[in-house]
Amino acid sequence: MVYVGVDVGATYIRVGLVDEGGNVISRVKVRQPTTGDENTVAAIIIDAIKDIVRTSAIDGIGIGSIGPLDLKAGIVPLAPNAPIKRFKLVEPIIREFKVPVVLGNDAMAAVWGEYVFGIGRGIKNLVYITLSTGIGAGVIVDGHLLVGKDGNAHEIGHTVVDINSEVQCGCGGYGHWEALGSGANIPRVIKEFVKGRVYRSRIYDKLLKGDFVSTEEIFQAYYDGDELAKDFIDNFLMKIHAAGLATVMNAYDPELIILGGSMALNNRELFRKGIEKYLRRYLAVRPARIEFTNFGDDVGIIGGAALVIKVPDSLRDFVDGYRKYLG
Ligand SMILES: [Zn+2]
Q1: How far is the CA of 157 from the centre of ligand 1 (A)?
Q2: Pair (221, 236) in one structural domain
Q3: Which of 55, 186, 217, 281 is deepest in the core (most CB within 10 A)?
């Protein structure tokens, strides 16, 4: 049996051929189209699948996508971070390949992939959190994948971690975990952070001049011992992430939280120590273990494939609804 896993990100679409043991046999990465209509994204996915599948027959296609989703319609109705805001996924892909298609959001797919094939195997209370450009979570409680009415349960990046913050989130809200802690927002957040403070620091000097300072640059400066980068990351950013993770533990009582996303994966020790330092300050329950994903960039492909290899009960009604496209 061979399956296709599709990872629809804001910048890239990854497609992989996956065997029933969750091993990626081959993969291809293409850029999200910057122009087009609601069929363009699916057309690109179809071409990419044909590219890696060639002659072999496939048994199903699983998709983990940026959201928010409309799972019933099998579409992304309004993606704030993608170049094309509204696009179809399920219908054109089923019509082309005539195999079962399962759709979930990207973090939902990732947690399911970890549960079926990864370090979360068999752990019935499991959370996957991506700390990257944005912040998202996939949650399994008592072996049950949380989905929600449209597929948008646990948009945990928009939990409030600071009621006094004046930094506005991409969603329009204030003080959200994603607004204050995601890779895309850190360059804005540090500008607020330095107001009224003085540092002997290269990053500080750049900010004073009005220069843009990237998230990668701030982390690099941290390891170089930069005074501002150290104060910002040790005493602010790690508190934000500890508060976010404590909220997840308080809400879902997981045994294990698996962290993914480039910001976490590139700074593992820093995150491990920083979170440990502040977690108990915000925590009401027995803490979960925290690990990092072993799947690297394949996490979305493996997660997508896992959705169709072992269809979660909570997605079954949606999948049954897609059968009408098979005829
Ligand atoms: Zn928000």
Answers
A1: 6
A2: yes
A3: 186
Q: What span, in angstroms and rounded, lies between the C-alpha atoms of 154 and 267?
A: 25
Cα(174) to ligand 1 centroid in Å equals: 7
**pTM score above 0.90:** yes
Taking the centre of ligand 1 as the mean of its atom positions, its distance from the CA of residue 81, in whole angstroms, is 12
Task: Clarify whether residues 271 and 303 are in a common domain.
Answer: no
Distance (Å, rounded) from C-alpha 109 to C-alpha 124? 15
Percentage of residues in the chain with pLDDT exceeding 70? 100
Instruction: For residue 179, report the distance from its CA to the centre of ligand 1, in Å.
Output: 6
How many separate domains does the chain show? 2
CATH of the domain at 33: 3.30.420.40
Residue 112 lies in a domain: no
Shared domain check, 126 and 222: yes
Q: Which amino acid makes up residue 112? A: W
Could you tell me if residue 142 is inside a domain? yes
For residue 109, pLDDT over 90 is answered with: yes
Q: What whole-number distance in Å separates Cα of residue 269 and Cα of residue 265?
A: 9
**Confidence band (pLDDT; 50, 70, 90) for 153?**
confident
Question: For residue 160, what are the domain limits?
Answer: 119-293
Backbone angles phi, psi at 168, to 5 degrees: -90, 140
